[in-house]
Amino acid sequence: MSCPAVPIPSDFNKDLYTPLAQADPEIQALIDRETYRQFRGLELIASENLTSLAVMEANGSVFTNKYSEGLPGARYYGGNEVVDELERLCQKRALEAFHLDPAVWGVNVQPYSGSTANFAAFTALIQPQDRIMGLNLADGGHLTHGAYTPKRNISASSIYFQSLPYQVDPATGIIDYEALEKQVQLFKPRIVICGASAYPRDWDYARLRKIADINGSYLMMDMAHISGLVAAQVQNDPFKDCDVVCTTTHKTLRGPRAGLIFFRKDKENDLEKRINDAVFPACQGGPHNNVRSLVIVRNFNLDMSLHSQTIAGVAVALKQAASPAFKEYATQVIANTRALGAELVKHNYKLQTEGSDNHLVLWDLRPLGLTGSKIEKICDMAHITLNKNSVPGDRSAATPGGVRVGTNALTSRSMREPEMRVVADFLHRAVQLGLKAQAEAGSKLLKDFVARLTGDGEAAKELEQLTKDVHAFAEKFPLPGVPRSEEIKRVE
């Protein structure tokens, strides 16, 4: 039985019923432009993906209206009976997606992002000025794992905790576990952190567990980049050896922008309470059932931009991640990465670790005399989106020697190995015209380089043709979340 018809008001509330295109054409125009940009371009940023129509629908639901500080069954506001059911369902699906026993593992699904999840985990596990060890930023680590420079601490994790990074073996690019073991014996960290943002290989969790046990340290995994691959069981399982596992939900997991914290219930009697208290009220306010939030924290590296955190959308993505189709997707992500990497190697390019076990390759451009910034700029102009990235041995993050290339978003557009070979050829052409532009510029300054990419020079002409070829190729594939591609507006 349907609800009774209620007339839409014509008073001061009439704007609440107006569709976006009519209520705010300026914002609608930006959405149309971004949709077109994604459709005709190639998204190769390893920390991005293309989420589903169902996640987008959940992300735009009436759950955005509800404030729900606290935990299910223990809220600070009334009217949360449905939200409680939603959050419990999300927790259940999170444990199921990662094949976890609810008697052993618990999960908090409220963090606004992976950064807040990490800092909340630190807050729960240790005290200010305790010691942590994470992978060095220049070796593929993450800012929130204790990053700092000789002149300043650049992350809250290094401001509030003493940090000593570990590194990869410079000869192989693989984590130097022997050196890490020696460092742990001397530094005696309270937390050993594994996980990375630009590391193309899998992790030896059993070895890391033994290293952490030297001093009785916590072993914490930040699987933000590879969580979808872990859920699909095409990567090693961090839950067998780690005490706490954090993740974002929007990378290989292919959900909305949010964070999760998994914790062992059998580690310490009060760990669940400490984790929950660290998320709220220690590090953030009410969870985002479905809303965009601007959290302004000037000196923290937690949430300094808009993040869409949607428990409803996360729950949808987790259900999808537990499906056989998602395992096929994750398997194809790795196959695509290896195909892309193999094609680049055929062109005699240098890849860190000479390949990949996951969703990304780290491409070292230093042998060519090019910087990552220049290739990022060329690719951006050709509507190939990737990012400049430090490679081990770089002297300065300001002039990174490589680029990071991920295949998760293109795999979400149903591209496979043959398409990866085409994409690799586009990247090869971008590098070759980059060398030409640098030669035409007569200097290695970025501004002189960019100037040669417009006008009537050879490099500019080649870039124009590359861009046309990218558009023609990309528009052959559907864009997730947009069932009818013919309705996408062609707007610049």
From TrEMBL:
NCBIfam families attached to this UniProt entry: PRK00011.1 (NF000586)
Top-level taxon of the source organism: Eukaryota
Named cofactor requirement(s): pyridoxal 5'-phosphate
UniProt keyword annotations, A-Z: One-carbon metabolism, Pyridoxal phosphate, Transferase
Modified residues (N6-(pyridoxal phosphate)lysine): 251
Keyword Transferase tagged: yes
GO biological process: glycine biosynthetic process from serine; tetrahydrofolate interconversion
Enzyme class at the top of the EC tree: transferase
Residue span(s) of domain Serine hydroxymethyltransferase-like: 20-426
Enzyme Commission number(s): 2.1.2.1
Transferase listed as a keyword: yes
Protein name: glycine hydroxymethyltransferase
Catalytic activity, as annotated: (6R)-5,10-methylene-5,6,7,8-tetrahydrofolate + glycine + H2O = (6S)-5,6,7,8-tetrahydrofolate + L-serine
Family the entry assigns: Belongs to the SHMT family.
Database matches in Gene3D superfamilies: Aspartate Aminotransferase, domain 1, Type I PLP-dependent aspartate aminotransferase-like (Major domain)
Pathway: One-carbon metabolism; tetrahydrofolate interconversion
GO cellular component: mitochondrion
SUPFAM superfamilies assigned: PLP-dependent transferases (SSF53383)
UniProt GO molecular function: glycine hydroxymethyltransferase activity; pyridoxal phosphate binding
InterPro entries per UniProt: PyrdxlP-dep_Trfase, PyrdxlP-dep_Trfase_major, PyrdxlP-dep_Trfase_small, Ser_HO-MeTrfase, Ser_HO-MeTrfase-like, SHMT-like_dom
